[in-house]
Design a protein that fits this description.
two-stranded antiparallel sheet, Beta-lactamase, disordered C terminus, 18% strand, 13 helices, 15 strands
Length: 389
């Protein structure tokens, strides 16, 4: 094709994608009064970024390519990646017990927990949050020494910032560096992420969106024990969708890092309709909206869910929908990818709004783009979603 024809085709394709996204985003932003939103997409090998609204109601500064959003628990997928990298390079084994790296926990129930259980929310009933009154590592270790399981290890899934936080804590010990320096100095640069931080530098603070509670009050997260490991990342839609593409082996990376990323998609436990990977959550594809809403329901976050261990673990697959939600008091995030279709989405918002609304929004966008995929790549991609709507 001639260059001008190619340019027109690319422009037409972008316009088509943009029309789908804009039509889906507008009613959600209006209903929940979301000040700003950034959407990153990868469709048939091409990346798209769309910005909506404002980063701050006070300044009215529009959301832009460099706008930073808190991504909450999507941070956990990065922590899982670092732990997987440590495993692939022989620094640790996911079958290791916590006490091997934290000797002060020897003889305790928590010290006997495996690293895998921390990354799959299955050590036996950890609290969702680090309890109030724990302000430093010594207090945390003392708390963990007293902890007793509320269910048998590997029998229930209880979503926990404490578990993944301790996986990050142990991983850093195994690599002989502190967690933040490993993320900001090694993992983020290795992924090619240029605007992703745990500690936002002064030069980037102007790009940091103001967050808003569900009632509309301005708020940003505050550091705390295990915050960096569990929910501390701030990033842009461009960097976040690049991470999604890395998870679908769509960008050039060091082979060892790519192996580590892919290994996080191993299925270890069945929890209702959802398979628990290393932090990531996956569903057989095609997947129904009902299944996604069930797997991302509040019960999966706040109550213990019986699980069955998958033996042997399921190898990473392409015919799956993989997702993760992330929330702080002032931001809401949803990430989903379908490796077989080379489809992925990141939705970042500077307001806390319901998770079901995020899931529906992403499903609507990817469904429509999946249905149009025959026009973007090969005819075999057409209507994959519609098989189980």
């Amino acid at each position: 094709m001639l260059p001008a024809v190619v340019a027109r085709a690319n422009e037409s394709q972008r316009d088509s994608v943009q029309s789908v996204v804009a039509a889906a985003v507008a009613p959600v932003m209006a209903k929940y009064r979301i000040p700003g939103m950034a959407v990153g997409l990868t469709v048939a090998g091409k990346t798209y970024l769309f910005d909506y609204g404002v980063a701050s109601l006070e300044t009215r500064e529009p959301v832009a390519r460099d706008t930073l959003f808190e991504i909450g628990s999507v941070t956990k997928t990065f922590t899982a990646t670092l732990a997987s990298y440590a495993a692939v390079t022989g620094r640790l084994s996911l079958s290791d017990k916590v006490a091997r790296y934290v000797p002060s926990l020897r003889g305790s129930e928590f010290g006997s927990a495996s690293l895998l259980s921390l990354g799959t929310h299955t050590p036996g009933g950890l609290a969702l949050q680090v309890p109030n009154g724990i302000d430093n590592d010594d207090q945390l270790i003392a708390y963990l020494r007293r902890w007793t399981p509320s269910c048998a290890p590997s029998s229930c899934r209880t979503y926990s910032n404490v578990g993944i936080g301790m996986l990050g804590f142990v991983t850093a010990k195994s690599m002989d560096r502190d967690f933040v320096s490993l993320m900001e100095g090694r993992l983020f640069p290795s992924l090619g992420l240029k605007n992703t931080y745990i500690n936002v530098p002064a030069a980037a603070m102007a790009d940091y969106a103001q967050g808003y509670t569900s009632e509309g009050a301005p708020i940003r997260m505050k550091p705390g024990v295990l915050w960096a490991e569990a929910y501390g990342i701030r990033t842009t839609a461009a960097d976040a969708i690049r991470f999604v593409e890395a998870n679908m082996q769509m960008i050039p990376l060091d082979a060892t890092l790519q192996r580590a990323i892919t290994q996080t998609h191993t299925g270890y436990f069945q929890a209702g309709v959802m398979t628990q990977d290393l932090i990531w959550e996956q569903y057989p594809y095609p997947v129904s909206l009902q299944a996604l809403l069930q797997g991302n329901a509040p019960a999966m976050l706040f109550t213990a869910t019986p699980v069955s261990r998958i033996v042997p673990p399921e190898k990473p697959a392409n015919d799956v929908w993989i997702n993760k939600t992330g929330s702080t008091n002032g931001f809401g995030t949803y990430v989903a990818l379908v490796p077989r279709e080379r489809l992925g989405i990141v939705i970042l918002a500077n307001k806390s709004y319901p998770i079901p609304a995020r899931v529906r929004l992403a499903y609507r966008i990817l469904t429509q783009l999946g249905d149009r995929a025959g026009g973007y790549s090969s005819p075999s991609n057409r209507s994959r979603f519609s098989e189980r709507r």
